[in-house]
Amino acid sequence: MKLSCYLFCLPIFATLPISSLAEVLDWRNGGNGQYPEAKPAFDWKKEVEWKTKLDSWSNASPILVDGKLFVTAEPATLICLDAKSGEVIWQKANDLGDLAGGGAGASDADKQRAAQVAEQTKPLERKLYRAERRLRRNADDAKLKAEVADLKKQIAELRKDLPKAAADLKRPPTNGTNGYSSYTPVSDGKHVWASFGMGVVVCYDLEGERIWHQRFEAPDHSWGGACSPRLVGDRLVVRFRDYHGLDPATGEKLWKTPSEGVVFNAAAYFDLEGKSFLITPRGELIRASDGKKVWSAGYKIESKSWSFHNTPSVIGNRVYFAHGVEGQQGDAYCLEIPSSVAKLEGEGLKQIWYTEVAKNRFYSSPLVIDGIVYLITRNYDLLALDAASGESFYEQKIKGLTGTAYPSLTRAGDVIVVGADDGKVAFVKPGKSFEEIERTEVAPFRSSPIFAGGVGYLRTLEGLLAVKGR
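Predicted structure:
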């Protein structure tokens, strides 16, 4: 089927999509987590509009397109729900065996054998993941080295007799936190594109017909991934191990740009003089039309065990970054986009300020409101910095939130929504001093909420929740 591709493309310094449009088309509503017209209720148990239990979990956020919500579920399912009622309209599986050409030639017996082997290797893969993490911290531990080698041998032994067609159906390793479906879908208002951690990208129309699919390399590590697909100019950009630019209409692979290091989240993007650019979590500037890496800030995390976890935020002509590692490093940067493509491609972005911040991981992407940059560490230290200078206004521990701060900070009208994967939600007032307004609790979740038309939507590990506004 021919795909007529209308791509929304943000001109530089334009306002990102907001809730008044009643559509949220991609990760963090254009990447910055801004819903300035939202008025969320403060009791997310009492003010439930509807709640829909789904068959499997996911960490990806929902998107809202033409009155329909699109969410993912493990391992590779795309689900469409009615935004008013929560009723499931359709759901489509996209695992390797579900795709034409995925495991081509695999018989039912091959698929059954592949499923059996996957179940047998799953506990061994979990043990291997934990052992490899311990080994990275204790590289000279002979006992751990032997344990890792033995687990790899057991897994290889189980897989050695798989027919090639069945072996093609084997998913790459991941862990129980990320899974395969942590990639938030993206839409142009007429179609939906989704990525899954076995290296699968699919395109659907809103009625549930799959237009095309593509397969790519596995993620660059055994922890899974969450680099949500982005529509940037006239390219669909995806990342598993490297960055790829695709024709959104056909799925044709147009360019490939190598990516160093472990990156868990999507690149930000902006337009300048009619040209589109990506800015990656590592500070790499990539031209969207051809994938050329034209500049890099060269950001590094001085530990081989750690990674870049969040998406930079682009506000006007400024880009904000935060990254770090427990006890070793904590960095926040502000870069400025020059006024012309010639300067951008010739000189790159200009550093406006650098601030050393809490030495910790920042899973949450930066949030910028009224000249203040908000950051939160994995264990709920909330930081407020002057967006103009990087000067610290405060650093405050939000007490009583347990688990890990996987959800990104979100602006919902006059409050900052702080999510905890234990299911608690804190509402914080923006400003130069810390003030928590209210707190509520729902089912455990790792996704970021979205807001549109007076309603908030949250993908919990159990399903999807719609909450009334106040």
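Summary: Residues 1-21 have pLDDT under 50 and may be disordered.
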